[in-house]
Amino acid sequence: MNNMIPGISDQSLQELNAALPWHAGTLLADGRLVGRLDARPHKREEVQPIPDKRIRRLDEALSLAGKSVLEVGCFEGIHTLGLRHFGADVTAVDIRPMNVLKTLARLSAHGDSARVFVLDVEEATTLGHFDVVFHCGVLYHLEDPVSHLRQLLPACDAIYLDTHVADAGRDGDTLVVDGESFRGYRHQEGGWNDPFSGRGASAFWLTLQDLQALLDAQGFACETWSERAERNGARVGLMARRRR
What we know:
Elements: H1 10-19, E1 25-27, E2 33-35, H2 53-62, E3 68-72, H3 78-85, E4 89-94, H4 97-109, E5 115-118, E6 130-136, H5 145-152, E7 156-164, E8 173-177, E9 180-188, E10 202-206, H6 208-217, E11 220-230, E12 233-242
């Protein structure tokens, strides 16, 4: 991270925190809060760590310094900062313009920078090539995660996926893509005005088995880094690397 940029003044930080509809907070080195804590239960009620344990493990596995990293769904820039902490060359995208503004603002307040763009990853046809894709909390908001991954995976050498998957007993729905059927669960989204929802009325959660099979078919060897039960259902962290 760039530590040569002068620190943000108290007045500027107060204006920044008041100007944008923040849902998460991070601490500067001097203990001042950037953003705010989300007052809603089960959301981001605590200061977010930079970097978090997922990014730390990703760095241990791949050594992020100097690597080109595409962050899919930057939200408010917390993971962007975490990736930059390890010296990654980060390009971050998000479908919501407000999230891009908040990410740029948070990076600036922390004295750092990255390329951050508004992009609908379900519509993008090319994103260039990246050493690593960091894909956290987005796949389960997509209407067609299969087409998205088929488009994205050829453009990277490794991908970390953190996503909900369809629980056993909630896998009775089917997504058909190019004549191939995928099992899963059709989840109702909260609408565009909900900052924690996708663009459409519903999203499709793949089963873990079908998600792993999709990664395998695209030439990636997959490791399960985490499995956990959350209030909305099962969630996994997958590390997939292109087979040589």
